[in-house]
Amino acid sequence: MSISTLYFTQNIRGFQLSRIEHSGGREIAHVSQKSDKRVCAACGSPKVKPVFFKNRLIRGLMMGMRVFMLNVAVHRLRCRDCGAFRREPLPFLPTEQARHTRAVERFVVELRQHMSISSIAEFYHMDWKTIKDIEKRHLETKYKRIRLKDVRHLALDEIHVGKKRFLTIALDLDTGAVLHVVEGRDAECLREFARRLKLSGAKIEAVATDMAGGYGRWVRDHFPAAAHVYDHFHVIKLMNEKLDEVRRQTAKDASQSEQELIKGMKWLLLRGEENLKEDDHRKLVRLKEANEPIATGSILKEQLRWIYQECTNADQAAVELSEWCRIADDSEIKPLKTMARTIRQHWQGILAYWDTRLTTGRLEGFNNKIRWLIRQAYGYRDHRYFFLKIFDLPKISLVKRL
């Protein structure tokens, strides 16, 4: 092996090769820095006197199927100009204390796109913690600074990650990029994110959220000029929950024959009627004919979906929603009256959908990616590493303008 081989395979420059040793299935190259390449680490002067310090064993890229190591003779350099006495740097290392080369780090980062940490560790004969630390260091550098200046439309959503833990995810609705990940789901946990947005000069025009109170408070406190949009996906989802509540309450008071009819009809009720097969549609009709509260709830659910699909502006939607709330109140069905009260309480945010045409329905798809990430690793003990992996998930197109 020649020094040119080290240059082209290991990307090592400015060092000289003294000998190659074959030991225990490994190839060990004994190298040292060329005398004309030594400079003072403090002032950059080439007028230095080397004093041998120690040998360091550094992991390099594998040569075929054989482990390749570098036995580097490290010196301390005494500078004749500034008087500094420091250890000579090894420019092919990613950090001063690293036991592998930059080339190894780049190779591991590339492999992580296709292989698990444990698979790389087994193939490369390295500790899995080292592989994880390499990827974590790469992601820290990649996401050290996230550009916020151009953000105009935000989406905020929460995801449950187990053991009463929730994360709040902030995404750019125009690009699908993750902007912020923090533990918690209230206004307080987003205080730092608001500070960063203001310092960046971002002009936030609209923020889409679910109907949780904490996010609304955060928008009002920090970006009062922005439109706060209650995503229609979450409105319909809440209506589905109320309809299922009607089904369960009705089943408690129903006769044995009615209970048999209601049993197993949950998903049939929640599905859009236009998507039902002919046989399922007949079942739903029979259920409606046999149970008036469920029929009323199902009709109101479809009517709410119709409002979102057919109304073309906020004024038209306001008229239809007012009538919807009146019918829900007149039904005297508690879950439907509760839904009407919720719509009135969030009136401006719900109507803002027709002004902005922003929706975060596909955000649930991104949350599924996070759940997949958790399952893939059987959970994460290193929370910072977990957050960085979320930042690195493939972007998802979130904006749907109708």
Approximate shape: elongated
Span from first to last CA?
A: 64 Å
Give the number of DSSP strands: 10
Integer tally of domains: 3
Largest sheet descriptor: 5 strands, mixed
Order of helices and strands: HEEEEEHHHEEEHEHEHHHHHHHHHH
Radius of gyration: 31 Å
Structural class: alpha/beta
Please indicate the percent range of residues in DSSP E strands (runs of 2 or more).
Answer: 15-25%
The number of helices is: 16
Q: Helix proportion of residues, in percent?
A: 40-55%
Mean pLDDT score = 88
Low-confidence stretches: none
Overview of the structural elements:
- With 402 residues, the chain is of the alpha/beta class.
- Helix content is 47%, strand content 19%.
- It has 16 helices and 10 strands.
- The strands form 2 sheets. Strands 1, 2, 3, 4 and 5 form a 5-stranded mixed beta sheet that branches.
- Strand 7 (165-172) and strand 8 form a beta hairpin.
- The radius of gyration is 31 Å and the shape is elongated.
- The protein starts with a helix and ends in an 11-residue tail after the last helix.
Write the SSE topology.
Elements: H1 3-10, E1 15-23, E2 26-33, E3 48-59, E4 67-79, E5 85-87, H2 102-111, H3 117-124, H4 128-142, E6 153-162, E7 165-172, E8 178-183, H5 191-200, E9 206-209, H6 213-222, E10 227-230, H7 232-253, H8 256-262, H9 266-270, H10 278-290, H11 292-310, H12 314-330, H13 334-345, H14 347-356, H15 363-377, H16 383-391
Parallel strand pairs: 2-4, 6-9, 9-10
Antiparallel strand pairs: 1-2, 3-4, 4-5, 6-7, 7-8
Helix pairs in contact: 3-4, 7-11, 7-13, 10-11, 11-12, 12-13, 12-14
